[in-house]
Amino acid sequence: MKNSILIVDDLTFNRKQIKAVLKDMQQIEFYDAEDGFQAIKEVEDNDIDLIILDLMMPGKDGFDVLRELKADAKYKDIPIIVYSGMDNIDSINQALELGAYDYFSKPLTMEQIQFVVPVKVKNALDSYVQRKALLRMHEKMKLELMLANVLQQTLIATSKKDHWLICMVNIFLVMKLVGIFMNVYSLKTMSGLLWQMFQVME
C-alpha cells in the first residue's frame, strides 16, 4: 500500500529537490501544490498521509494552511512537516505551536539530504499509519458491538422466521450511520452474518 506525500512550495526546484531526497523510500506517491489554495484542494481530493509544507509562500502561506487543516476534524491528524530559511527560527516555532509535526530548515545540507529529512518523513508516516490502523480497529469494534445489540434486540422482539428481514434492515442502517458501510465488512462477510442470524431465528 502506497503512502501519499503532498509537497507544498511555490518554487518547482524545491519540490523536485524534496522528491529527490526521498527517492529511495519505498511505496511513496507524491502530490504537488504551488500555493496554499492548491494544497487545501489536494488534501480534499486525495488521501494524503503526510504534508511537507513551505511556510513562506505568496497568497495563502504555510501558516494559513496549518490553521485551516488543524481546525478541520477530518484533516487535523495528518502530520505536517514544515520548512523555512535557516534564519527564520521564529516562524518555525510559530508553526510548531500551530500543530506542525516537525520541521527542517533550508537550504538543505548534505546531512539533511542523507539522513535528517528521510528519517523525519519516515517517522511521521509510521506514526500516522499506526494511528489510522488503531482508529480502524476502534471503528470495527464499535460496529461489532452495535451489530450485537441490534441482534439481541431483534431476537427479544420476535422469534418468527419471517421477521429476519427486519434484523437485516436494522444492521444495514446501523452500518450506514457509523459511516463505514462495506469498508469494515465485505459483502461476503455480511452475507455470512445474516445467514447465521437466520439460522438462530429458525
UniProtKB/TrEMBL annotation:
<keyword id="KW-0812">Transmembrane</keyword>
<keyword id="KW-0472">Membrane</keyword>
<protein>
    <submittedName>
        <fullName>Response regulator</fullName>
    </submittedName>
</protein>
<feature type="domain" description="Response regulatory">
    <location>
        <begin position="4"/>
        <end position="121"/>
    </location>
</feature>
<dbReference type="Pfam" id="PF00072">
    <property type="entry name" value="Response_reg"/>
</dbReference>
<dbReference type="InterPro" id="IPR011006">
    <property type="entry name" value="CheY-like_superfamily"/>
</dbReference>
<dbReference type="InterPro" id="IPR050595">
    <property type="entry name" value="Bact_response_regulator"/>
</dbReference>
<feature type="modified residue" description="4-aspartylphosphate">
    <location>
        <position position="54"/>
    </location>
</feature>
<keyword id="KW-1133">Transmembrane helix</keyword>
<keyword id="KW-0597">Phosphoprotein</keyword>
<dbReference type="InterPro" id="IPR001789">
    <property type="entry name" value="Sig_transdc_resp-reg_receiver"/>
</dbReference>
<feature type="transmembrane region" description="Helical">
    <location>
        <begin position="164"/>
        <end position="185"/>
    </location>
</feature>
